[in-house]
Amino acid sequence: MVNLVAAQKPLLNGLMKMAGITPHTVEIYPGTVMSIWVPSETIKKVKTTAAVDGNGKTAKPTKPVVVLVHGFAAEGIVTWQFQVGSLTKKYSVYVPDLLFFGGSITDNPDRSPAFQAECLAKGLRKLGVERCTVVGFSYGGMVAFKMAEMYPEMVEAMVVSGSILAMTDSISAATLEGLGFSSSSELLLPDSVKGCKALLKVAAHKKLWFPDRLHKDFLEAMFNNRKERGELLEGLVVSTKDTNIPHFPQRIHLLWGENDQIFTFDLAQNMKEELGDKATVEGIKKAGHLVHLERPCVYNRCLKKFLISLHTTNEPRK
Questions:
Q1: How big is the CA angle at 272 (ends 268 and 274), to the nearest 5 degrees?
Q2: Measured between alpha carbons, how far is 209 from 81 in angstroms, rounded to an integer?
Q3: Angle at the Cα of 68 (from 24 to 265), degrees rounded to 5?
Q4: Predicted confidence (pLDDT) per residue in 113-160, tens digit
Q5: Helix axes 212-222, 193-203, angle to 10 degrees
Q6: How far is residue 20 from each of residues 24, 95, 102, 128, 262, measured CA to CA in Å?
Q7: pTM score of the predicted model
Q8: Rounded distance, CA 126 to CA 135, Å?
């Protein structure tokens, strides 16, 4: 029987290509490969322009760079399908698949967000990216925070939705208890239609109904590499006593669904205070954790407003 979710993938791929991005593979280290959707014009220019090594070659981006980093339940273009087309006219958009999502794999045993950030930064550099704004959702937000901490010369600003600086053991326990789950894997790695429905229920503000067949197909199409993803979840949790808030020189915009049940809007407001004067917070009404999917038009408008203000501010530096 045809998997309905997998069957839609060629259509989504085609729409992304029409929007102006193309899939590309980059070898980060021997045994570590990342799949990254890159601006199509960087591929086309390779015939006449000095190129930067990837797996194959690409030219440097010519517009301000925006990197869209996905969460834990789906790969890059599935997560950001409603954002890409609204950004590609004015920005060079890169959409990576983090390790063990999409076509990205590694034989390195490191499962930390820091290693994800290291590989993403190295991959982007191989593609000619020198400066970028990183937009991170949920798990991708944690990778974005780590990337900004480790590579401040590369990450000029961040937009973060439904995420936190680090998943401490205390936050993990409180979040799971509040949602009624016994473990992160039970929440984020469902192995049944019932589990998939439970994840959707807490992630979305609106009551969304899909037939069981679609939930089953989504599980089969999106939740591969289960062992490694379980290890990624284990690698997320750090001791509360060992956690310090880094000093971020970048502007950080927290763009949140006001009805987020996983990481609440109150948590976002508290995080803004912890991050200091360079951080701002903005809530979107009638939206939960999946704010960019539930209210994409509002989300895109808020995102673009921040990006415009950022690049207007940075104009003299060009």
A1: 115
A2: 20
A3: 160
A4: 999 999 999 999 999 999 999 999 999 999 999 999 999 999 999 999
A5: 90
A6: 13, 12, 19, 17, 33
A7: 0.92
A8: 20
DSSP bridge pairs for 132:
155
178, amino acid identity? G
Residue among 135, 142, 120, 33 nearest 86 (CA)? 135
DSSP states of 230-290: HHHHHHHEE-GGG--PPPP-SEEEEEEETT-SSS-HHHHHHHHHHH-TTEEEEEETT--TT
Place of tokens 């991708």: 140
Two structure tokens written together for 161: 């939705």
Upper half-sphere CA count for residue 176 (Cβ side, 13 Å)? 16
103-119 residue pLDDT tens = 999 999 999 999 999 99
